[in-house]
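Review session, final week

We close the course with one last complete record, chosen because it touches almost every idea we covered. It is Phosphoglucosamine mutase, a protein from Draconibacterium sediminis with 458 residues. Go through it on your own first, then we will talk.
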Amino acid sequence: MTLISSISGIRGTIGGQPGESLSPFDVLKFAGAYGTWIKQTAEKPTVVIGRDARVSGQMVLNLIVGTLNSLGIDVIDLGLAPTPTVEIAIPMENAHGGIIITASHNPGNWNALKLLNRKGEFISQADGEEILKQAQKATFEFVEAQHIGSYITNESYIDKHIESILSLPLVDKEAIKEAQLKVAIDTVNSVGNPSIPKLLKALGVNDVVEIFAEPHGLFSRVAEPLEENLTELCKTVSEHNLDLGIAVDPDVDRLALVDEHGKAFGEEYTLVSISDYILANTPGTIAANLSSTNALKDIAKKHNVQFYESAVGEVNVVEQMKKVNAVIGGEGNGGVIYPELHYGRDALVGIALFLTQLAKSKKSASEIRAQYPSYEMLKDKIEFDENVDLNQLLQDVKASFPECKTNEIDGLKLYFEDGWAHMRKSNTEPIVRIYIESTSLDKAKEINSKIRSITKTN
């Protein structure tokens, strides 16, 4: 059993002992801490809540609602809703914050509380640290009966989200409709359905094959939309002679694409292709996290704009995007952030933008993908004992590559002539992640072997 508390929320497995998993006690404590923090911003605050389709979601929701109401906080429950839908609902409702009940790409036995501010963005590091302190103290002031908060449901926000996407100048509904695209979607039995079918219908895409569609929360494939987990989607696109395959994670903030031959783009190239489209039509800069592909730098050079890197984590990317006025950004895991709509990873707006690019370019999906440089990325992870000095380990790795420029804003990133390697401690799992990109997989493996030899792991 696992429980991970971080500045962005609390995440863990369901079942087991309090303090060792995401137990009801831990949910109550963390919801209480968040509610106490929210009450500093308003006398009678409102919090928006949405959840993905995990089987534990309703139970966790009930615990959170009861806790917030007992603190005198009003709750608006969006029901089953994508993460980006909750994000846009908060400012639309003039609410003071929000909680998304989702463990994103983690397996179905996990769940989590993702915490948002009144802008519908992830809370800052300083606010997260304050909430963690509140949770540790667990000294909450509950209200008397006549001051208990209200609870209402509002399931209209998927439609409002779609309406907002359709109003974007770079989303061309007519071009998409005219292209008569045939599409397959894999919504991993969560809130990608009904949101993606509704979006496609609104865009004029009427030939749609759905797999893993029913949102019952019992995921029919591994939740993360990586190439190795999309074999059924690739097969479906190929067998039905479709133009495109679309896959998301359980909370619909990550987008993966499959071309007309049933070949996966690679999650890194979702943001690459959409950034190319945005920068071709909008002056401005681009920003992404340190673990994102060099192809984004190539796109920036193509359009003669600056590319900026940030620490890993959506809140860090958003902070960098605001700082440099980026018109597009995100994370190489398929997370597209388009500030024209909102500052959050959003697979729905990513779908609309890519379909517009596909329709207006008069090219196939494979032809669009072939426009971009191909890099090979190796993703590895190492589990360490708690007594390992990670900072010293990273310095040992750095010393072993004296020829490399480095970046240490988030772990350690080494820059090679034809690629890079990034090591960092995960915010969501008890591991150290190693991402390596190079012009060939053999070179990436060679770098990984050297790093593992330095860290004395096999």
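Two points worth writing down before the exam:
Residues 160-370 form a domain with the Alpha-D-Glucose-1,6-Bisphosphate; Chain A, domain 3 fold (CATH 3.40.120.10).
The radius of gyration is 22 Å.
Good luck, everyone.
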